[in-house]
């Protein structure tokens, strides 16, 4: 039996005709043993499956049992990737069912390990690899992508994968993981998402010598040739998929991240997740923390370890938040200190202040000892975006406990091994008085017989909702104000119960609702700023957006008008319990 794809799925457009067997081979159509007998017979696939019928719920239980059998997190990751390649709805419904349990596998920290071992676990390709040698015909490569209705691209050049450094083409795990979260946390349809790795080589010596490496085996191309390549990619992306295609920069190194964002933000529908998404989630956490510390945003002194993409993104949004609350911009900047690999950002230090962080250079004596800075400057908020695991040592944490009654400590570097301190260390060395968040999840902390559930200050609370709002409104651009709005929306979701548990973010199980609300605010802003291009403007934003999201439930492949002809000679008899739902002919 042949049918059109559009007819089958309702929203996929594909000129190819779909045969019965394609329902087993195509992960978007496959339901495994959940094909009813009627479907099996209608599609001509009866006998290609075992006789048993299983509901989606039963299949989910089997997946959970299978996953629980694996002790090694990388094996869990491989299982989930294979599930995604086999049965997309089952994959996404499994992740949605228990976000707290499965996010740490498809996302940080396990995705970091998966990227490091990408050559070993690479089986079925997912996403596009565009290499520097495709320069001049990138559009042709994008034309090879079989989906036409792509609305969002997450792309990396693999140079700063989490805090793990240059992983070259192995970085593909990141855009794939981010886009899985687009669907799980915001309900964006999977076929509208495209992960891309821009392969310009790698400067990672180990990878260049790794026999398993799958990318270009050469040093990174830099300078004009790199810039021209990125330029051609950006142009080709919108030529192929339309002018309002969302282009999310992910895990670019500091040398490129800020300058590329500045170059493209007013010309394309683009944002840098590490700069802007991170800023938004961190500021949301700081907003929520004010309810515990009773200090307003401008009653804090902020100290960053790391002054790269994430740190300066956060610092700039903290300033914007204070300005919105009536604080003078210069006064706001004075409250923020930064410390990078060369020491405190002071105007008189040897290498000067890097351009991207120039607003935060201070006219004080240079200092290379971070611990000393924490003791003399006495920050009340300490924010780690340095990629240096364990950098917030016992002395530093104890000093923070002296600096404030309720010190705020964010260890945002990923994956877990790169976190500036663990949740347990933060509580132990601040007598349980800290307000803590980390980029990767930590298990609950016990301090003096009380259990605390610390929050995950990760941009995953932000980028899916921003993307959903941008996609549904077809916004032409993504102004900075959307990230501040997203931060306020997220902070409003933090309940008194969360705060009592020590959490300044809502539980991960609420993220879907958070994303929906962020999307509503983002879309409203797109219309009010005349950036939206989807018309007519919706009356009820929430239900409009909900109507555009992915349905996790299996589709029925029996067209409504189709009545399966029952032969009078066939006796239909329901079989015993083991064959629940399956009707066999005897
Ligand atoms: N939680 C989140 O949502 C989130 C979001 C983005 C980035 N991050 C994490 O933050 C980290 C940094 O990301 P980025 O994009 O800012 O990277 P980046 O390369 O742009 O910046 C790293 C910064 O750390 C500084 N640094 C390096 N070694 C240092 C040392 N020994 N002492 C002091 N400073 C040092 C560098 O000078 C630089 O300023 C990564 O681990 C990343 O995973 C987390
Ligand atoms: O990927 C993450 O978990 C967050 C962030 O984008 C990062 O680069 O660390
Ligand atoms: Mg990132």
Automatic annotation (TrEMBL):
The lineage of its organism: Eukaryota, Metazoa, Ecdysozoa, Arthropoda, Hexapoda. SMART domains: malic, Malic_M. GO terms for molecular function: malate dehydrogenase (decarboxylating) (NADP+) activity; metal ion binding; NAD binding. The chain crosses the membrane at residues 301-323. One of its GO terms (cellular component) is mitochondrion. Keywords: Membrane, Metal-binding, Oxidoreductase, Transmembrane, Transmembrane helix. (S)-malate binds at residues 160, 414, 458. A divalent metal cation binds at residues 250-251, 274. Pfam families: malic, Malic_M. InterPro entries: Aminoacid_DH-like_N_sf, Malic_enzyme_CS, Malic_N_dom, Malic_N_dom_sf, Malic_NAD-bd, Malic_OxRdtase, NAD(P)-bd_dom_sf. This is Malic enzyme. Belongs to the malic enzymes family. The active site is at residues 107, 178. The keyword Glycoprotein does not apply. Its cofactor is Mg(2+); Mn(2+). Residues 275-527 form the Malic enzyme NAD-binding domain. One of its GO terms (biological process) is malate metabolic process.
């Amino acid at each position: 039996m042949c049918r059109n794809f559009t007819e089958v799925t309702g929203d996929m457009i594909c000129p190819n005709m779909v045969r019965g067997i394609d329902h087993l081979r195509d992960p978007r159509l496959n339901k495994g043993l959940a094909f009813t007998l009627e479907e099996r017979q209608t599609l001509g696939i009866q006998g290609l499956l075992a006789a048993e019928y299983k509901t989606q719920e039963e299949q989910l239980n089997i997946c959970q049992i299978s996953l629980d059998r694996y002790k090694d997190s990388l094996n869990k990751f491989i299982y989930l990737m294979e599930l995604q390649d086999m049965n997309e709805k089952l994959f996404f419904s499994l992740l949605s069912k228990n976000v707290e349990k499965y996010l740490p596998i498809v996302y940080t920290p396990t995705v970091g390990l998966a990227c490091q071992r990408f050559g070993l676990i690479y089986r079925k390709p997912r996403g596009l690899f565009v290499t520097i040698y495709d320069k001049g015909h990138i559009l042709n490569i994008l034309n090879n992508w079989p989906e036409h209705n792509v609305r969002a691209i997450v792309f990396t050049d693999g140079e700063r994968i989490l805090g793990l450094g240059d992983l070259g083409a192995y970085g593909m795990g990141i855009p794939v993981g981010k886009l899985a979260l687009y669907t799980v946390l915001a309900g964006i349809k999977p076929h509208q998402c495209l992960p891309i790795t821009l392969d310009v080589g790698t400067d990672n010596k180990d990878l260049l010598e790794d026999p398993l490496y799958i990318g270009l085996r050469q040093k990174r191309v830099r300078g004009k040739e790199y810039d021209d390549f990125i330029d051609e990619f950006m142009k080709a992306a919108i030529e192929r998929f339309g002018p309002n295609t969302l282009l999310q920069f992910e895990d670019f190194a500091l040398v490129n991240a800020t300058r590329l964002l500045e170059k493209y933000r007013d010309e394309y529908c683009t944002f840098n997740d590490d700069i802007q998404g991170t800023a938004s989630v961190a500021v949301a956490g700081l907003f929520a923390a004010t309810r515990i510390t009773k200090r307003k945003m401008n009653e804090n002194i902020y100290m960053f370890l790391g002054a790269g993409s994430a740190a300066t993104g956060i610092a700039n949004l903290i300033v914007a938040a204070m300005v919105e609350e009536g604080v003078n911009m210069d006064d706001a900047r004075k409250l923020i200190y930064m410390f990078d690999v060369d020491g405190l950002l002071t105007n008189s230090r040897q290498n000067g202040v890097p351009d991207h962080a120039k607003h935060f250079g201070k006219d004080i004596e240079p200092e290379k000892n971070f611990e000393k800075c924490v003791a003399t400057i006495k920050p009340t908020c300490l924010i780690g975006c340095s990629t240096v695991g364990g950098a917030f040592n016992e002395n530093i944490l104890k000093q923070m406990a002296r600096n404030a009654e309720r010190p705020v400590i964010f260890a945002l570097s990923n994956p877990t091994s790169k976190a500036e301190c663990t949740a347990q260390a933060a509580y132990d060395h601040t007598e349980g008085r800290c307000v803590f968040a980390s980029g990767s999840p930590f298990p609950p902390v016990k301090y003096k017989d009380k259990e605390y559930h610390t929050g995950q200050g990760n941009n995953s609370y932000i980028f899916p909702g921003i993307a959903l709002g941008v996609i549904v409104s077809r916004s032409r651009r993504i102004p900075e104000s959307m990230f501040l709005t997203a931060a306020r929306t997220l902070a409003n979701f933090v309940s008194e119960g969360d705060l009592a548990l020590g959490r300044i973010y809502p539980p991960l199980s609420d993220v879907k609702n958070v994303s929906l609300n962020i999307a509503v605010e983002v879309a409203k802003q797109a219309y009010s700023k005349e950036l939206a291009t989807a018309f007519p403007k919706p009356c009820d934003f929430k239900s409009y957006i909900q109507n555009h999201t992915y349905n996790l439930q299996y589709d029925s492949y029996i067209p409504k008008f189709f009545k399966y002809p029952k032969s009078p000679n066939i006796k239909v008899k329901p079989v015993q319990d083991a064959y629940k739902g399956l009707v066999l002919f005897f």
